[in-house]
Amino acid sequence: MIRIILSGCFGKMGHVIRNCVSARNDCEIVAGVDIGDGEAEFPVFKSFDSISGVDADVIIDFSHPSVLSELLKYASAKKCPAVVATTGLSEEQIADIQECSKTVPMFFSANMSIGVNLISELAAKAARVLEGSFDIEIVEAHHNQKIDAPSGTALMLADSISDALSVKPKYEFDRHSKRAKRSKNEIGIHSIRGGTIVGEHEVIFAGHDEIITISHSARSKELFATGAINAALFLNGKPAGLYNMRQLVDAK
To answer: Who is most buried in 24, 122, 234, 244, counting CB within 10 A?
Structure first.
């Protein structure tokens, strides 16, 4: 039985993870961390600094970027593996995760969906085959409460495509601010925010007289919760290092 500390336990994803864990018999939540108030079947602490009397095997984090520093400090001190699923992290914070992974098993992915990580690999393969003759655009859509734009997943898709190309493209986020034809060496990234959209991502390869699209549609938050829980179980017994969804998929 894997014992979990859930960071962001009173948030939307926190509630979904709690429901998913309650239906499983291979893991349990032994503590939560959240600055908010609410009811839980486990002890909840306001910060990682205040956690006491808890023995845990892994941390799952679906909270806020501002929590990351104290989470990494706790994980490093306790040698407790962590799954970081919070989005909107800065490059410096991602570097901090990489540094922590030198001594602690860390799992980090911009998206916890197996399906999204699969289309990332498909988009990279398409980019290699179509390079030079197709323009590439990425469109993502999320609910109106999402803070960061573009989404971490859109950037993950762009990075996967960029790594597959022989000439590194420029990411174009603000095409409306200039009057010029589209350059060949760019990837346009566009964000839509509205309603309760869980998550939509589409990669468009636009060529001469043909268009190829690769897309993923998330219909509920449960798929991200399931991915995070599976990542937590995947970390059990792993040595220090930085792990991601590709390694989890390959292990299946």
So the answer is: 234
